[in-house]
Amino acid sequence: MDRNYEKICGARTIQSDKKGFFNKFYIETKQTCGEKWLQNCFGQSKSNQARILSMFNDPEICDTVLRILENVQPVYKQKDALFSAQNRMDAEKYYILSANTNKQENLAQALVFANLAVTRAPAKGVNKQIDGGFSLAMAFRTRAAILLAMDEGKVALSDLKLAASFGLDTHKNVDYYIQLAKAYELIDEMPRAEISLKIAEKFAGDKKHTIEVCREEWASKKSEKKKPKLKLIDKGPLLTNGENPDLKGASQLVKLVESKEKGRFIAAQNEVRTGDVILNEKPIAACLLPSFYGGFCCHCLEKLVTPVPCSNCSGLAFCSAQCMVEACKSYHRFECQFMDMFIGSGMSILCYIALRIFTQAPNVESALKTSDLLYKNLCTHEDSRQADDYLQRSLMAGFLMRCLQRAQYFGPRKTEGFIPTAIEIKVCTGLLGLLQVLQYNAHEIYQTVKSVDHIFDGSKIMYIGAGLYNTGAYFNHECWPTVARYFVGKNLILTATKPHHPNEVIAENYGPIFTKMNLKDRQRSLRGRYLFDCNCMACQENWPTLQKLDKQVRFWCPSNNCSNILHFPRDVLKDVRCARCRKNVSLKESVSRLIKIEELYRKAAKAMQEQKVFQAIDLFKESIDDFFQIALLPHKDTLIAQLSLIKCVAAIN
Fold first, then answer.
1. What CA–CA distance (Å, rounded) separates 155 from 319?
2. Residue 199 burial (CB count, 10 A)
3. Which segments constitute the MYND-type domain (predicted)?
4. What is the per-residue pLDDT across 490-501, written as a single tens digit (0 to 9) for each?
């Protein structure tokens, strides 16, 4: 095994950015303690708790650790009322311009400035010198006007309500109630629209003409059929055959099994057909990559259109008031003031998830229970780890625990000292265990970015975060997976890309895939990253990459109860001899079926090109199921069909 490559892979799961200060912390600590102490003392620790106690108590290392961690301070992007007000005025300028020229272009630019105004505005009363302390309310009000001009009633209504909640004076405010009426009308809630307009009418005075114009516009639009402008958040497809009561988020078609060689893994419990949805699972915890804080909701991971900010920091945003409230009531209140500290440390996304498991829990005891169960049930390769790997993870656990201390996760401290208490040692131990679990069990979360002109042409995969999935972690790896993996928000979806018989392994792919990577490189990558040698069929038979694969096909022997493999015959009209069942068999029917299957592949590909996605899915499901009845992989056209099916099922969710 390449220990150096394994070490590099392991280090990347703790610190993804070597420019961060954590790497200096680790190197300084390692130099202080020396290699002899690291191997003979720290390296001989038999438990995570012993490692944490050693880090904080052993005189060879504790002074350096405590001195550096003492300096942990809140660092985050703060609000700026002046910046918000300037951007609000720019938004209003483009909004006014949109009434005369280039409506859509000017409204789009106005929305950009309005979003900046909203995210940087301080909470009510924080800076009374600017906007009288109502910068946030005014920013929401301005953005609502822009959204109404874009016919986005739902989000405009949300912004109007937020403006009121953050202090906008709505008493006898005619303009506010007219805007409210327009928002309700756009979402077809006419009774509420009429009530809002009547309230406006009551206080209208010389603005009654505006109300009359509003009613005339409604009358002219009655015959028009409204369409929703923004995508509603979905939870993904339904599980085929319902949920397995013993496996959260998994279909009843699958089961959890265990063997000495493979450990615990997912296999088929019943017949599984191509296209069956076998997993739709919420994460235990999931986090957005910091580089996407400005583009996606940090809570549900949906793309941001009209961001709703945290009331305290400006470093990230949410897609709705609901997501903002849910986040700020749980994990974000502890993470908020340390967001730039985390980014500056260079810590990996897995460290964010480890921290999130604690910050999102209702209490410390619940978080400790979750971390203990995960450490007990999921793979950690504890016996294969080196001393410096444990040191690096222990230091990261100490850093995260110190941030929790400063965020008063454990409550107000009686002294300014950093020396951890008994419960803080337990949390630090739990974090160390999670940092081991996450290395081998987390999933990258990605979205498919579609082009404007075509669903598939020009689309690309964008990795936006990572999550830990309890059931999803039990799927073993093969270098050609038997499921399609995609995400709906944070939910992990797995859909079968081939039929499975009962007890057949249902496999995921951990990254190295035979279509793009040769056997030697795949094995090196898997040993270094996951510490195992892959023995899947693609590895056993050393399948060539897709580019080098010819169009030859291997058939199953058509005799009953025979599982022998037969190569494509030189002469289809002549029988071939099966070495296993010792019968002369004809492959004429198998070849005929293959020709029909390949024709279905072409029809499905044409449906994809015409963006008839559901038709393409049905054709791929039928043809792939038929292929596996008569033949087996690798078969180039079938591999391409499976890849195409993956694109299709991801495109409709």
1. 10
2. 19
3. 297-336
4. 999 999 999 999
| Total number of residues shown for the chain | 653
Burial class (CB in 10 A: 0-12, 13-18, 19+), 595: exposed
Main-chain dihedrals φ then ψ at residue 135, nearest 5 degrees: -60, -40
pLDDT, position 231 = 41
Q: Strand pairing partners for 264?
A: 258
- In 3D space, the residue among 408, 399, 413, 403 whose CA is nearest the CA of residue 52 turns out to be 399
Residue 232: the pLDDT is 39
Orientation angle between helical segments 387-406 and 21-40, nearest 10 degrees: 130
d(Cα 269, Cα 176) in Å, to the nearest integer?
59
Backbone angles phi, psi at 465, to 5 degrees: -175, -160
Q: Which domains does the chain have, with CATH numbers?
A: 1-71+290-439 (no CATH), 81-221 (1.25.40.10), 254-282+469-541 (2.170.270.10), 554-652 (no CATH)
SS3 213: helix
In whole angstroms, give the CA distance from residue 504 to residue 550. 27
HEC readout, 495-546: EECCCECCCCECCECCCCCCCCCCHHHHHHHHHHHHCCCCCCHHHHCCCCCC
